[in-house]
């Protein structure tokens, strides 16, 4: 690889499907942007799995370098707020979907998409958090802003074995909340208790037809699943409490009634991390650097090479990946 070339995972369309291949690419081929970043790490999220496999129609322009997250060092910059040598991270903004992303050793992006790496986080740790952990923090912040009370009933986290769920369990427990983690994988019980879950609930207890109103159980909930699980969770919320919803692995349809909203005053917060404004984004990352224990982050994280991404993308869609996956783009 020459000085002006770099390695990247590139998606293309072939016979109506999506294929991926490692390629050497010139920096001249990078899309427009005012900051060039030498990427150190990326991560694998559920959306990355959809993009790389082509199963979710996440990518509609080809060729595309996927990877919705990246962390690295500014190589060159036309923006006054970013200087060469500065550590930065990027999550969201359509990167890896409509603009070449983090599964590459170099990335050219718009400065307004970048966030300075918070003090206390390395680039690798930032990508161990990634979009999934950032989304989890936004969920926690939404529940806190709604008035979540650590002395009230338990807080539920669905899809707790995944990336968002794992970080949410760790964050909520260290902040003093009693966490009930939901999973369909019995092999993850010890793992989730290690992250701070006090109780474990089997997935099929929620992935069922919901009553209009069920017993008041949860003081708050982070739902990463959607579909029938979210409908059941809504029916079980305590009066005046809230659900932060951020996922669709269980389906995009929501078969519920208005009763939880008009009889119990339940609030459903939709959480979007992609277009989150920078002030709120910086606050969330500062909280992650301060509140998320590094040992729990390490316990939920595995590291892979760029060449391993296609296989791991298949695995994450099959529910075979726990916690977080860091991609070392230089390995």
What does this structure look like?
With 331 residues, this protein is an alpha/beta fold. It has 2 domains: 5-117 and 300-328, Alpha-Beta Complex (Quinone Oxidoreductase, Chain A, domain 1), CATH 3.90.180.10; 131-270, Rossmann fold, CATH 3.40.50. The chain contains 9 helices and 15 strands. Helix 2 (123-146) packs across helix 3 (163-174). The longest helix has 24 residues, at 123-146. The two termini are 14 Å apart.
Write the layout of secondary structure elements.
Elements: E1 5-14, E2 17-26, E3 35-44, H1 46-53, E4 69-77, E5 87-91, E6 106-109, E7 115-116, H2 123-146, E8 155-157, H3 163-174, E9 179-183, H4 189-195, E10 199-202, E11 218-223, H5 227-235, E12 237-245, H6 259-263, E13 267-270, H7 278-291, H8 294-299, E14 301-305, H9 309-317, E15 324-328
Parallel strand pairs: 8-9, 8-11, 9-10, 11-12, 12-13, 14-15
Antiparallel strand pairs: 1-2, 3-4, 3-6, 3-15, 4-5, 5-7
């Amino acid at each position: 690889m020459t000085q002006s070339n770099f390695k990247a995972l590139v998606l293309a369309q072939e016979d109506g499907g999506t294929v991926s291949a490692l390629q050497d690419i010139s920096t001249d081929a990078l899309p427009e942007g005012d900051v060039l970043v030498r990427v150190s790490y990326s991560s694998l999220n559920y959306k990355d799995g959809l993009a790389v496999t082509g199963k979710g129609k996440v990518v509609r322009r080809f060729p595309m370098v996927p990877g919705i997250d990246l962390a690295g060092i500014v190589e060159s910059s036309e923006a006054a707020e970013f200087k060469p040598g500065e550590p930065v991270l990027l999550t969201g903004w359509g990167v890896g979907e409509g603009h070449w992303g983090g599964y590459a050793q170099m990335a050219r992006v718009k400065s307004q998409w970048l966030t300075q790496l918070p003090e206390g986080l390395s680039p690798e740790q930032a990508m161990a958090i990634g979009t999934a952990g950032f989304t989890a923090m936004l969920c926690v912040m939404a529940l806190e802003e709604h008035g979540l009370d650590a002395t009230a009933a338990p807080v539920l986290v669905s899809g707790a074995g995944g990336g968002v769920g794992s970080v949410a369990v760790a964050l909520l427990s260290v902040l003093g909340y009693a966490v009930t983690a939901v999973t369909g994988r019995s092999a993850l019980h010890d793992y989730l208790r290690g992250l701070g879950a006090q109780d474990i609930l089997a997935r099929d207890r929620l992935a069922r037809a919901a009553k209009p109103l069920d017993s008041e159980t949860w003081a708050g909930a982070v739902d990463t699943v959607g579909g029938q699980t979210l409908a059941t969770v809504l029916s079980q919320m305590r009066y005046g409490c809230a659900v932060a919803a951020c996922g669709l692995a269980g389906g995009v349809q929501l078969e519920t009634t208005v009763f939880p909203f008009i009889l119990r005053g339940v609030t459903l917060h939709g959480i979007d991390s992609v277009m989150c404004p920078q002030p709120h984004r910086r606050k969330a990352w500062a909280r992650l650097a301060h509140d998320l224990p590094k040992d729990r982050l390490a316990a939920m994280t595995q590291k892979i090479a760029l060449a391993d991404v296609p296989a791991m993308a298949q695995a994450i869609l099959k529910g075979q990946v726990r916690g977080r996956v860091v991609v070392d783009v230089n390995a």
